[in-house]
Amino acid sequence: MKKNKKVFRFGKNVTVAGFVSFFMDISSEMIYPLVPLFLANVLGVNKAIIGLIEGVAESTASLLKVFSGWFSDKIGNRKWLMAAGYAISTLSRPFVAQASVWEHVMGSRFIDRFGKGVRTAPRDAIIAESTDKAFLGRAFGFHRAMDTMGAVAGPALAFFLLGLFSGNYRMVFWLSMIPGAVAVLLIVFFIREKKKVVASHSEKSQLTLKHFDWKFKFFVVIAGIFAIGNSSDVFLILRAQQTGIAPVMIPIVYLLFNLVYSLSSIPAGIAADRFGRKRVILSGFVLFAVLYYGFAVAKGTTAIWILFGLYGLFMGLTEGIQKAFLATIIPQDFKATAFGLYNTVVGLAMLPSSLIGGFLWDKVSPAATFYFGAITASLSALLFVLFIAAVYKSTTS
User: Fold this and answer.
1) Of the candidates 133, 135, 119, 92, which has an alpha carbon nearest to the alpha carbon of residue 17?
2) What pLDDT does 2 receive?
3) What is the Cα–Cα distance from 292 to 280, expressed in whole angstroms?
4) Is the pLDDT of residue 340 over 70?
5) 384, HSE (Cβ side, Cα atoms, 13 Å)
6) What is the pLDDT of residues 93-125, one digit of tens each?
7) 353 and 235 in contact (C-beta within 8 Å)?
8) Rounded to an integer, what distance in angstroms lies between the CA atom of residue 144 and that of residue 269?
9) Closest Cα partner for 76 from 195, 253, 242?
10) Which of 8, 91, 236, 244 is a good FRET partner for 289, with 20 to 30 A between their CA atoms?
11) Quick one: which of 291, 295, 338, 351 has its CA closest to 315?
């Protein structure tokens, strides 16, 4: 009997993790593009509060990512932390379905992101440990593709259900629990994790940066700076509505973004494995700066459709590839800790990012939110060029 059977040159766990994310993203994306509309149109919440909700939910819960990763390395277990995280997110749905004030929505978003904080680092470590180094790009690309195919199906299903239930947001929120439950069951019954020997030395019990070299630290700083300008996607949704796209069509616009994201993730992963992950990541930073400038100056609905497609391409070029690159510059024994640190820094940056985005929208102009993002992306691209040069110099000296 063959163990650890390879599918498309990566482990079976990667395939299962992909389907887990597929179903969970159906659940999440049935809700996500509707939440800012629900807050603004049903509960009458202003844009600054919407930014606060997203920022607090993402950033506070992101603190868990580093501790979850460290704890996973410490106890030598990934699967059950992963399962717990997905279950917690699924159980957040009733809170938003019954929300009557914005604080209830914030609570639901926090619980959902709390679950994400628990599951992300152990899941990424499982993917990395189930894949040969030469195929990390396509493994993470496949995972992002499956995740995003769920994000395509989720808005499409939300669009259908909104029509079926006469614009009843709450019914869509309730039904989103079903695919979330499927995701949890897939982990319980199909993820197979090798037993790990838990180190007895004290280093495993310490959460410290001394295990990581300058390359990891520099890259995380760049990712954090970029994230400060990458405000919540709710502002893209609100921008789409502002330029004239009807609320009922918003899930379809978001579907386009996720479709391009999904279709580009695997080719981007293969290209990164073949031509270099650093080149693909740099291309993504530059593209983001260009498209956020486009959101700032966009005047009509045609431009918004094009920009959402380009945003999907950006995500395909960076999201999975950054993690694949990260897996090559971190120690074997601290993979989950490293992924947790990376995700925590990026997640914590979302609090000032969303607060700045909401403040600029309300106090300056909607365009200012996107100009700010274009500037931070350009700075990140410049720093990444310096990073590439420093790596090259260190390997040739």
Assistant:
1) 119
2) 45
3) 18
4) yes
5) 25
6) 888 888 888 888 888 888 888 898 888 888 988
7) no
8) 10
9) 195
10) 244
11) 291
